[in-house]
Amino acid sequence: MSIASPAIELISWNVNGLRACRKKGFDEFIRERNPDVVCLQEVKLNPTCIPEDDFGYPFRRYHLADKPGYSGTAVFAKEEPLSVSIDIPGDESHSGEGRIITCEFDGFHLVNTYVPNSKGDLSRLSYRHQSWDPALRSHLIELHKTKPVILCGDLNVAHMEIDLANPRTNRMNAGFTDEERDGISKLLQDGFLDTFRHFHPDAADAYSWWSYRAGARARNVGWRLDYFVTSEDLAPSLREAFILPEIHGSDHCPVGIQITRG
């Protein structure tokens, strides 16, 4: 899959349990939208219940957590990657939770990730800020030495105040702490761009996650937690970045980008 090829579409979706999402329209969405690459987070599968369905994709790769039914990621693609790796190569401290799949294609590296949640009591904030975020950033920078990079997934952070409905009341809550926001800020400072804000810098009320409580989705009281972040050298190839809030099936909705020929 080359950047020099015709336009391709990549979709990322935290499905909050693939089996549950399939009962709520996942298969129909994939069939009708027909993206070139699909990246999933929180598939919550056990090794014994990985779907036999290929969803129309010759390449399928699941990376499951050691704990059954927890976390987990997956990548489906119309073309076979040149190489595939899981977790962060050379760093075993972040393995076991099925959080990263890296696929190398002709024109770019694709990193699908489900970033750890800091938890309501912020008990994992230190791990995330001091260990996970720097390790992921280093992984992306290392990959970029050979090819442009696309990072996608549930990054579990609303970067700016515009990225959540109630920034004032959520100050220092998980997903909007200074430390979590600093993690994505540092990545952007290192030569990466938030594709949605690249195209829609002032778009308000644009969210990808809503609590199941108090009718939050119906009232659009949400957070933008799901991203496509690319190295800046891909900017000329980007055609669009989008959020699909009309697609249900999870507490998150799909997000995506389209890349045209260079």
Produce the secondary structure layout.
Layout: E1 8-14, H1 18-22, H2 26-33, E2 37-41, E3 59-63, E4 73-77, E5 83-86, E6 100-104, E7 109-114, H3 125-143, E8 149-154, H4 178-189, E9 192-194, H5 195-199, E10 209-210, E11 222-223, E12 226-231, E13 238-243, E14 255-259
Parallel strand pairs: 1-2, 7-8
Antiparallel strand pairs: 1-14, 2-4, 3-4, 5-6, 6-7, 8-12, 9-12, 10-11, 13-14
Describe, in plain words, how this protein is organized in 3D.
It is a single chain. With 262 residues, this protein is of the alpha+beta class. The chain has one domain (8-259): Endonuclease/exonuclease/phosphatase (Deoxyribonuclease I, Chain A, 4-Layer Sandwich). 19% of the residues lie in helices and 26% in strands. It contains 5 helices and 14 strands. The chain has helices spanning 18-22, 26-33, 125-143, 178-189, 195-199, and strands at residues 8-14, 37-41, 59-63, 73-77, 83-86, 100-104, 109-114, 149-154, 192-194, 209-210, 222-223, 226-231, 238-243, 255-259. The strands form 3 sheets. A 6-stranded mixed beta sheet has the order 3-4-2-1-14-13. Strands 5-6-7-8-12-9 form a 6-stranded mixed beta sheet. Strands 10-11 form a two-stranded antiparallel ribbon. The longest helix has 19 residues, at 125-143. The radius of gyration is 17 Å and the shape is globular.
Descriptive key words:
single chain; 262 residues; Deoxyribonuclease I, Chain A; 6-stranded mixed β-sheet; 14 strands
What's the short version?
The longest helix is centred in the middle third of the chain and has 19 residues, at 125-143. It is globular, with a radius of gyration of 17 Å. It is built from five helices and 14 strands.
